[in-house]
Amino acid sequence: MAQIISISGPIVKIRVDDQNPGLFEVAYVGNQGLIGEVVDIDKNVATVQVYEDTEGLSLGEPVEFSGHMLNAYLGPGLLGGIFDGIQRPLTKLDFRIKKGLKEFPLEKNKKWHFTPAVKEGEIISRGSLIGELPEGGIIHRVISPFSGKVKFIAEEGEYKIDDTVVLTEEGKEIKLYLTHPVRIPIDFKSRKRSKIPLITGQRVIDFLFPVTKGGTASIPGGFGTGKTILQQTLAKWSDADVVIYVGCGERGNEMTEVLKDFSKLKDPKTGKPLMERTVLIANTSDMPVSAREASIFLGITIGEYYRNMGYHVALMADSTSRWAEAMREISSRMNQLPVEEGFPSDLSSKIASVYERAGFVETFSGKEGSLTIIGAVSPPGGDFSEPVTRHTRRFTSVFWALDKDLANARFFPAINYTLSYSSYPDDVSGWWKKLSPDYDDLRNWMINLLQQDEKLQRIVKLLGTESLPEDQKLVVEIANLVKEVFLQQNAFDPVDAHSSPEKQIKIAEALKVIHQMWEKAFIQKGIPVSVLKNQPVITEFIRSKYEIKNDQVQVYDKIIKKIIDVYTDLISTYGE
Ligand SMILES: Nc1ncnc2c1ncn2[C@@H]1O[C@H](COP(=O)(O)OP(=O)(O)OP(=O)(O)O)[C@@H](O)[C@H]1O
Ligand SMILES: [Mg+2]
Fold first, then answer.
1. How many Å lie between the centroid of ligand 2 and the Cα of residue 237?
2. Which residues contact 94 (CB under 8 A, 6 or more apart)?
3. Is 412 in the pocket of ligand 1 (CB under 6 A)?
């Protein structure tokens, strides 16, 4: 019998004798059967990282090895669910779990209405569609994990998750659920370059620093710069079919908020409560540190499962820094040699192994699906040169850098538009051009303007806007308008929280028209910027983003016409 020979926090050493556990095999540790994972084997001593509080555990207590790796249970009932880092179900508002609980994470007695898609005698292969059932706002597709010839297929009806719906001639069974190791990616046919943006409804993101469906993005930001609010906003408004929200080492009450909010809010696409397309994974700061490491991989595995049904999945992890800190703690307990700032030497490959699992794929059944991964990073002191931010930057294609000064000025989202970048604009340009042929022009105009403004801001900071010549003042004032109306967005305003792509285009168009009219007024009549910006039509336009809903964007055409009329009039009458 394997026995405990040393305990250091979550790290337990075990003399294994005649047993032969594998690396990453799940172990049940001590009399209470605490769940852990083998992280090292040296001759007849196995080191296990325990996912629960080890207080009360004693030397000499027995350990059992399970014979399998840490698995995710994948089946209907995940949507709307809340789980801890190793997929134990959490009751709605109570995040405490009994120790050593090996509960089946999905509801065993719930019945699902299954409709078969194959017939007896049919040959199926890996990835074949076996049948469908409604789950939340989507159709849950039961996919075959292997090939074979169908001997039995369940007829249409109500089935529990554990019921066999297919039996093959070869004697293999398919149930409504399957298990898959969280550390091993779920297979697909091929990876594709994504040309479709994940529309988040956040103007600064969608228009300036877009992420594709299947892309990777990071949100680095110091304390209180708005990472959590931004992640939650993305989870609410992204046009993904399924959203996985991993609360990793952050405050427990934030997860309760998500839960309350998402149960009240409706998915704009399906009209169903947002919670019905969402899976929450909570490993908050008050829960054992070691399960944090697993929580992100669990989330990813669930994401890949829905991706393989042909859905677009978005995963948000808040915060990957707390996740990396958990690895640091574990590695120091194991006396591993720290490399940078106490982090283990495999920090970089661990971060890579998360973002690598994002992608836009063709599944074995020929469907397209994607998994987008967006991770928040909390650099201590807001210093972006620290290891977690630095490595994350290497493995993500979008960097939404949150800025302390913007946040202090209550400019939200506090995305610094000079430090941030996205490598996807060329990929999504075709998608946007279908909405508006002017997309590239508008985007280039805005970026250009913000760059000119950035240069002038150095002088403005020293000497004030008044010190600038009139033509430069005009650039600064237009840029201010772009910042106020377009880049700034109030996550708590019912209308402004979410801008459709059409609304984004219209606001950008109106801003560009204002710029053109001001330039014309200045060049033709030398009208000072102070006069140009003080027209009531500008105040009306600033207010419009809070008033014009996504389904009323045609109103912007009237506003644009009015802007042109007002300034045409002003130019012709000015100085008379
Ligand atoms: N988009 C937004 N609109 C309006 N207010 C915001 C927005 N984003 C952040 N805030 C304000 O900033 C505060 C801090 O935001 P948040 O909790 O998201 O920061 P954080 O970066 O996650 O902080 P921490 O480092 O503590 O995790 C919020 O409570 C809210 O008042
Ligand atoms: Mg936070």
1. 18
2. none
3. yes
